[in-house]
Amino acid sequence: MEGVKKIKNPSTVKDELLELMFRIYRSTNGKYPALEWVKRKPNPNDFDGFREVYEPFLKFRLSQEFDELYTYQKDNRIIGTIALVYKRIKEKGIWWVPEELMNEKVGLIEFFVVDPEFQGKGIGSTLLEFAVKRLRSLGKDPYVVTFPNLEAYSYYYMKKGFREIMRYKEFVILKFNHKKFQ
């Protein structure tokens, strides 16, 4: 079956997500995930080194940060992900979110990735549209936190109806700014 699927128990897909994130890390030559908390980032071809630094963060995200996790699957393989964070944001210790966004009206779109092999096929658009609609159905304003050095990602979000509203630490904060998904 192909399409967006809610993951009821995110820890059950941790290993598959770790492999997906490594494929993305390798394809971006170590730019994403940024691993900004690591003093010395692993080589983009070193899965064991990547797992050592990223797996604890992934466990935190799956067990404590994400309120809802969705995957895009094809032939029972996860090829895309998107997560929503909207409950008790302030209490979660999400240090990359500015204080003024830690309120009940905010819904964060996180962990939005598509396997490099499947990019450019509309999967990202499907996931992002789903996330925006889901957050709006909950009465939340959709936001994205990204990095300024990932210009292609920022451009993608802006093309889809987001606009930059602020810079915070080393991050760019974008807010969905359209009535309809683009």
Automatic annotation (TrEMBL):
Q: In terms of domain of life, where is this protein from?
A: Archaea
Q: Can you provide one Gene Ontology molecular function annotated for this UniProt record?
A: acyltransferase activity, transferring groups other than amino-acyl groups
The record's section on PROSITE patterns has: GNAT
What Pfam families does its record include?
Answer: Acetyltransf_1 (PF00583)
Question: Would you tell me the protein name for this molecule?
Answer: N-acetyltransferase domain-containing protein
| InterPro entries xrefs | Acyl_CoA_acyltransferase, GNAT_dom
- Annotated N-acetyltransferase domain ranges read 5-179
